[in-house]
Amino acid sequence: LIERKTRAKTKRKEIMLARMKKSCSCTPKKLKSFVMNFFPVLQWLPKYHCKEYIWGDIMSGLVIGIILVPQAIAYSLLAGLKPIYSLYTSFFANIIYFLMGTSRHVSVGIFSLISLMVGQVVDRELILAGFDLNDDAPLGLGDVTLKNDSQPNTTAFNLTYAGMNAECGKECYAIGIATALTFLAGVYQVLMGIFRLGFVSVYLSESVLDGFATGASLTILTAQVKYLIGIKIPRSHGHGMLVITWMNIFRNISQANLCDVITSAICIVVLVTAKELGDRYKQKLKFPLPTELVVIVVATLVSHYGKLNEVYGSSVSGAIPTGFIPPKVPDFGLMLRVALDALPLAIVSFVFTVSLSEMFAKKYAYTIRANQEMFAVGFCNIIPSFFHSFATSAALAKTLVKTSTGCQTQVSGVISAMVVLLVLLFLAPLFYSLQKCVLACIIIVSLRGALRKFRDVPARYRVNKVDTLVWVITMSASALVSTEIGLLVGIVFSMLCVIVRTQRPRTALLGQIQDTTFYEDDLEYENLSSIPKVKIFRFEAPLYYANRNYFLKSLYRLTNLNPSLEIARRKKYEKKEKQLLKKGDQATANGLNTGETALQLVPKQIDFQTLIIDCSSISFLDTTGVNTLREILKDYKDLNISVLLACCNPSVIDSLERGGYFGKDFGSMQELLFYSIHNAVQFAKDQK
């Protein structure tokens, strides 16, 4: 046997006390280290190579800023909020991530999936508060006496609901819900960072995330169709939103606005063509074409001078105020209503941010700190929630644009924020005449990447059928039920798939590869030699309570021997033999009786004397697993069959030792445990 190293006993109590003492101590050096780690910008900004980095950061920052403005205005439709709040979100997220983020390349700001999740909660709470989701018919709860408000296109109501007792219109209540939801999501993310709960992201597999993104994209697409064709239908919410919305669309298709339909068709053709050309010639282009901005500028000019709203009734964005609204503490009464909704929002936001950060860090050969990323995205939600902003996350499309335009550091994020600030302070009113159908076109075209996942289904199926099933289930639940339920269903189903795989793993009898000391599955490979009087059984999973019965059934089936039944048969045969001997029927006792009952009791001829269990794929044993192996050892021993274990890892050996498998003094270990299958086979051959 190989000698195991003796482990020094660790005094956990002393170690924990030492760690707590170290954590609670406060020295100038430790305080400085904490501040430097909490604000990574203090580490890398003094080392910034201005001549080498500045032009790439300026170029990428300007391009992303130009892209951010139309996307921010467009994604406000998804969130059910006014465009000004999307601009606030884009501005503050870039500034805060610049200070706290560890990734040099990711673009943090508004993200379509996050905006959709916020919008679904906002819609639900608006309906519960008595508001009408129809953009053109705001109706309130309580006293509906209209009053003039300082902000344009805002209706004020005397509203007492959910702890709020103030004049608050639909817009006011909607942003109140969004900021409460965003604040709680940020708090959850910070708490996850404090308690180092980033491991929860490992339960969101690639198949779950892709299915969730694709299902949510179908929901986003569905929500934008009414703007594309200019019909007025109630905004659906809750479970089955996709089906209900499409039913309402087909019922009201005759009311489509011809002006919006023509505008949408032109915009989609222009945007898709520009995107395809950009993808095809991206190696030759120094930076992506600002197609969205061009489309928005041209569409706004055409709408304004053509008076499309007044003449054809085309729906427009309306007034977007300039400047900043005074900060306000998120309403704690509303937080109780959205506390559960904030949890999936926090997890999805964090997972997308960290996964993108790790992907680009690996690509450009640097490291990130996942825990700090959780703090960064958490404060990107907490602080902006005081400034009328909603939840944020990293976005793949904008991150790819940043890297392709020469981004080197998060200085580019500050440049993007300055572009958004310019729009906030001076240019926002210019978008008054922008048609909503143009914004819907920008959103739909941005979903190309997620919707293209449908083309990958055949290839995904060929690689792994189970992962494809997880993708389909998650996508279907996210689209047909709701995004939150879809995410939960995807996680639960993927975990069930893992459990089922360990409950019913592959099992095999092994044969020897000729002229070698290696053994493989005799059903998978040809020209394998069987070992006389020896059976070698492989179980390709941990042995624990959930697969114990499958382990025993597979072993008995492949070896064609159930020791418990065989022992019972022998005992019955011996009892029958003694009864016949007492009657003096010697001939029957010697087995000459050919009756059916006697034949059933004759002991079975066993064609092996040694059973070797290949434990190389058994990663761990629980108490049930140890007891199962002890039971096998005892049952086969009663039939004079030796049971040998081969290729056990140290964890399995420790479990067997603690479970008493080798006896009290471990004296039988050398005869029961072997470090290779071949050693066990040689030992079996040497036995009489």
TrEMBL record:
Residues 524-684 form the STAS domain. Keywords: Cell membrane, Glycoprotein, Membrane, Phosphoprotein, Transmembrane, Transmembrane helix, Transport. The keyword Phosphoprotein applies. It is found in: Apical cell membrane. GO terms for molecular function: secondary active sulfate transmembrane transporter activity. It catalyses: oxalate(in) + sulfate(out) = oxalate(out) + sulfate(in); iodide(in) + chloride(out) = iodide(out) + chloride(in); bromide(in) + chloride(out) = bromide(out) + chloride(in); oxalate(out) + 2 chloride(in) = oxalate(in) + 2 chloride(out). Gene3D superfamilies: STAS domain. It holds the Pfam family STAS. The chain crosses the membrane at residues 53-75, 95-118, 172-191, 211-229, 334-354, 375-397, 417-447, 468-496. The keyword Hydrolase does not apply. SUPFAM superfamilies: SpoIIaa-like (SSF52091). One of its GO terms (cellular component) is apical plasma membrane. It is a multi-pass membrane protein. It comes from the Eukaryota. NCBIfam families: sulP. Belongs to the SLC26A/SulP transporter (TC 2.A.53) family. This is Sulfate transporter. It comes from Turnix velox (Little buttonquail).
